[in-house]
Design brief:
Length: about 650
């Protein structure tokens, strides 16, 4: 190889090899330890500390955990577990507490001594939180003393010391921390509802443990305690649905893997299945989810054949057929779980699939034999689902049959963009032909496509796929998006990386937006998960005085604009936009479609179980839960069209 003496090249020798000491690696690469520096990662800091308390509960030493968000957004997590050990480590010659808090991969969960099963497994949870905190303080109650140590950005400020005495039988750990704004540089803060949802789930899967969440910023407090565990979880999810049978529950251990499963079929058309490993919500599923699904499909088919509930000539039910209307929770406790990453979104242990499949199959087969009415109801549900799915497949094929010839499948009402690069392209789904006309004239044709919808689409919460595909507006959306639907849904085929719902700022517009969100959540959640779905924010007011014009996007902003003008409000011209059609193309472009000026809200699903329950309550068949919701929140409504 020719040697180059180019002084502009950076040097690369022994002196250029960096060794990151202590917790500096976490501060340099937070994404490796907590998934990044966004709002999700911020909440992950709390989860890591609470996971340690839950591990004490799983070991049988803790039954009370409290989480307090203080007014300055610092967080305190307290439990009544055994307390982190404080004695001197035999080889490191520092307190075990300091070792746990300041050293990566230090913890009591690697051998068989401290914990049989745990959620905190990599020994980086507490130390990562400490590293990413401006300050962190830990108090430990053990052996009649209160031990204390403080850290600044991961560095201990003094050795562990005794600061007080306590009752001999009092044990536990209190961890307080303030996230570091040098790391979390975005304007973000903890969301009470996000934490509430997470800890509700934890309380369901860790029964008989009290979890208290307090938010001192807004004076909110909630306590969770469930005797029924995941059976209560299934009942909670199905509160607004008509159930076809009592909840099936099985709990058993096999080869060291503890398996808990609960399931119930309802009149719903969607599947609500959630998986947990060592109390951690594995949102991407894994081997326990695979084992559950395959067991259900096999047992339902065997039962139907054995009891002559389907014809010999009929094919077996598919997995999709056996999961329509299914609500299920699978929770496993694994001594040595293999997660896909530190953020623990997917379980990888192959032996767990075998254990779950066998335990659930045996338990469910016995349940169906002992409850023939439940068995018949489930088979009838699967039969109806299979027929509807076959009809949907035929209808879907009509919608996408010519997908290879792109221009032949695009709906006539779509005003497409010139760009064929999905990353550069965006689709506005617009309410009504009037607004659609303004949007078509005001858009940038190079990268913005417009799809106007006529009226309100079907409520897909109450409609099966086969009926849904007869709706012209829904067929137009499926064709325009290019991702398919049902069995052949593939988000990688998406034609636009920004899909923007743009509806009027009135009650009808909000209803149409909700119908569209229901459709995407139930049938194209992959688009939401990939971050492609947005909601446009058109202005509510045009405020003018002489040659000055300003737009206001909320009531508060309107008041601020009027104050800025500094004159008698009666002299100010004000136009309230109730519909997009009231704006001319230039105004619509300037306020809502120009990437340099517009505001878009990205749609995300932080908690699928809560979103599932909310959509079912607001858009489903049952009326009483919806009435209760309306009555509860009626006073919060500020702008209601009359």
């Amino acid at each position: 190889m020719a040697q180059t003496n180019n002084s502009s090249f950076p040097s690369y020798g022994a002196k250029d090899i960096q060794v990151l000491e202590g917790l500096e690696a976490v501060r340099r690469r937070p994404g490796m330890y907590v998934g990044g520096t966004d709002i999700k990662a911020l909440h992950h800091l709390v989860y890591e500390i609470v996971d340690n308390s839950i591990d004490e509960a799983l070991a049988g030493f803790c039954n009370s955990i409290s989480i307090v968000i203080h007014e300055d957004s610092s967080v305190t997590v307290e439990d009544n577990g055994r307390g982190i050990p404080v004695d001197i480590h035999p080889t490191k010659n520092v307190s075990a507490l300091e070792l746990v808090m300041t050293t990566l991969h230090a913890g009591g969960k690697f051998g068989a001594g401290g914990y049989k099963v745990s959620g905190g497994l990599h020994g980086v949870g507490s130390s990562a939180v400490n590293a990413l905190s401006e300050w962190c303080r830990v108090k430990v109650f053990r052996d009649g003393h209160v031990y204390f140590q403080e850290y600044h950005r991961g560095i201990a400020q003094a050795p562990v010391k005794i600061i007080d005495d306590c009752d001999e039988d009092k044990t536990g750990t209190v961890t307080s921390f303030k996230f570091d704004k040098q790391i979390f540089t975005e304007d973000i803060d903890f969301r009470f509802d996000t934490l509430l949802t997470r800890f509700r789930e934890m309380a369901f899967v860790t029964r008989k443990v009290k979890i208290l969440l307090v938010d001192e910023r807004v004076s909110k407090e909630v306590t969770f305690y469930f005797d029924g565990g995941i059976v209560s979880f299934v009942r909670y999810l199905n509160k607004s649905r008509e159930n076809l049978h009592p909840v099936f529950y099985v709990e058993k251990e096999m080869d060291g893997v503890s398996v808990e499963a609960a399931l119930q079929y309802t009149d719903s058309y969607s599947e609500s299945v959630y998986s947990f490993a060592n109390t951690i919500n594995t949102i991407d599923g894994g081997t326990h989810m695979t084992g559950l699904r395959s067991a259900i499909t096999r047992v339902v088919n065997d039962y139907a054949r054995r009891n002559n509930l389907i014809k010999e000539s009929d094919p077996n039910f598919s997995g999709d057929d056996t999961r329509e209307g299914l609500t299920a929770i699978i929770s496993v406790k694994v001594p040595d779980p293999q997660f896909e990453s530190q953020t623990k979104v997917k379980l990888m242990n192959a032996e767990v699939q075998t254990a779950v499949q066998q335990i659930v199959a045996e338990g469910l087969a016995e349940f169906l034999e002992e409850n023939p009415n439940a068995g018949k109801a489930i088979i009838q549900k699967c039969l109806t689902s299979a027929r509807a799915r076959d009809a949907a497949r035929k209808a879907r094929d009509l919608v996408i049959r010519k997908s290879a010839l792109e221009t032949m499948t695009l709906p006539g009402k779509l005003a497409d963009c010139s760009s064929r690069d999905p990353q550069q392209s965006e689709l506005y789904i617009v309410e009504g032909n009037s607004a659609g006309g303004s949007a078509k004239q005001g858009r940038d044709r190079q990268f913005q496509a417009i799809l106007p919808l006529r009226g309100k689409i079907l409520n897909t919460e109450r409609t099966r796929l086969d009926k849904m595909l007869s709706n012209e507006e829904i067929k137009a959306m499926i064709s325009a998006l290019g991702v398919g639907i049902g069995d052949n849904f593939d988000v990688s085929n998406i034609r636009y990386h920004r899909i923007i719902i743009m509806t009027d700022a009135d009650v009808d517009g909000a209803h149409i937006r909700t119908l569209l969100l229901t459709f995407f959540f139930r049938y194209m959640q992959g688009i939401i998960d990939a971050g492609h779905l947005f909601i446009a924010q058109p202005p509510l007011y045009l405020i003018s005085y002489k040659n000055q014009k300003k737009y206001a996007y909320s009531e508060n902003e309107k008041d601020e604009v009027i104050k800025e003008f500094g004159i008698n409000p009666e002299k100010i011209g004000m136009q309230r936009y109730k519909g997009l059609g009231e704006m001319n193309p230039e105004q619509l472009w300037e306020t809502t479609m120009n990437p340099e000026n517009r505001t878009l809200l990205q749609v995300s699903v932080e908690d699928a179980a809560q979103a599932d329950r909310t959509f079912d309550m607001l858009m489903g068949q049952a009326v009483p839960p919806r009435n209760r919701f309306i009555q509860t929140h009626a006073h919060a409504v500020q702008n209601l069209d009359v």
